[in-house]
Amino acid sequence: MKNLLAAALCIGAALNVNVASAEEAFGIAIHGGAGTINKAKMTPDKRANYEATLAKAVTAGYALLEKGESSEKAIIAAIQILEASPLFNAGKGAVYTFEGHHELDASIMDGKTLNAGAVSGVKTVKSPIALAQEVMNNSVHVMLSGEGAEAFAKKQNLELVDNNYFNTKSRYEALLRAKKKLAEKERELKDFQAAHQLLDNEYKYGTVGAVALDKNGNLFAGTSTGGMTAKRYGRIGDAPIIGAGTYANNNSCAVSATGHGEYFIRYHVAADICARVEYQGKSLAEAADTVVNDVLVSAGGSGGVIAIDTQGNIAMPFNSKGMYRASMSNKQDMKVAIFADD
Ligand code: ASP
């Protein structure tokens, strides 16, 4: 054993690899949604606002990791900052349903134990990611929905708010625009579902998520969203579905997705990326890029992911015009970006 360790240290030294810091790799990546982010409409003020909030969230998570706290704590801290911001489609600032309310979805997964928690269609829970965490840690289930999930939130003493708390003017205006387009298309197609399928991407995205690796080598992933503008009939997207919008496994990687949820569910995007890393021996960058830019693009699904592996490598590919994103690790300074050429 001692000889093996000595040999590893010699090889490390010969390759100029810092063995001690490689053992302690840690880092975090976050997203605030992918989609048709219009560069022309992105004023310097608006951009600065997005970037400042992303930077605040990623540094909050990173600071916890640096202190030796768990990846669970780090992703919760980052996601709650994004949920509280009206800029993103999660928590405050969530999109509106067709009926003019908000229905929120979230999920979280532990890469060490493969324990997971998810909630869907909740209307009064201030922090849906906190409720997903409660489901993971303090219930015998993986997913709770609607009123039952809200009753559980009350029992766990989570903060409840009126559905109006999630209101923002800009999302309401987006609902009015979406309903106008839907009405025109529905007249042509005589079918709400088909009309919704044709809605522009600007109505579909904005989810938030975080993935992290802590100093103990444990991965965590989490995602929180208001779903899609003008969603109807209790529609649930990929964000609360383990394997689709969120996945973590210490054998491979942690992934949080954003995009057209129906495709992410059918192509179990988050789990597929981790499976390619684990079973095909692909690098994180290659696995994430193949799924986002080949598999999803061929299927017609737009969006992106953030992912981190057990060595602290981070990948953030997307096939849409932009994706609000940020990352930081002990081998990489903070990066905050929106467009592909950032
Ligand atoms: N994936 C989310 C959904 O389909 C939307 C998003 O990423 O913004 O509900």
Architecture blueprint of SSEs:
Elements: H1 2-14, H2 19-23, E1 27-35, H3 44-66, H4 71-84, E2 104-110, E3 116-122, H5 128-138, E4 143-145, H6 146-155, H7 169-189, H8 192-197, E5 208-213, E6 219-225, E7 246-248, E8 253-259, H9 261-266, H10 269-280, H11 284-299, E9 303-309, E10 314-315, E11 322-329, E12 332-339
Could you describe the 3D structure shown?
By secondary structure, the chain is of the alpha+beta class. Helices cover 40% and strands 22% of the residues. The chain has one domain (26-339): (Glycosyl)asparaginase (Glutamine Phosphoribosylpyrophosphate, subunit 1, domain 1). It has 11 helices and 12 strands. Strands 4-3-2-6-5-1-11-12 form an 8-stranded mixed sheet. A 4-stranded antiparallel sheet has the order 7-8-9-10. Helix 3 (44-66) runs antiparallel to helix 4 and helix 10 packs across helix 11. The protein is globular and about 55 Å long. Bound molecules: aspartic acid (ASP).
Can you give me a brief rundown of this structure?
The chain has 342 residues and is of the alpha+beta class.
Question: Which key terms come to mind for this protein?
Answer:
single chain; about 350 residues; alpha+beta; Glutamine Phosphoribosylpyrophosphate, subunit 1, domain 1; four-stranded antiparallel β-sheet; 12 strands
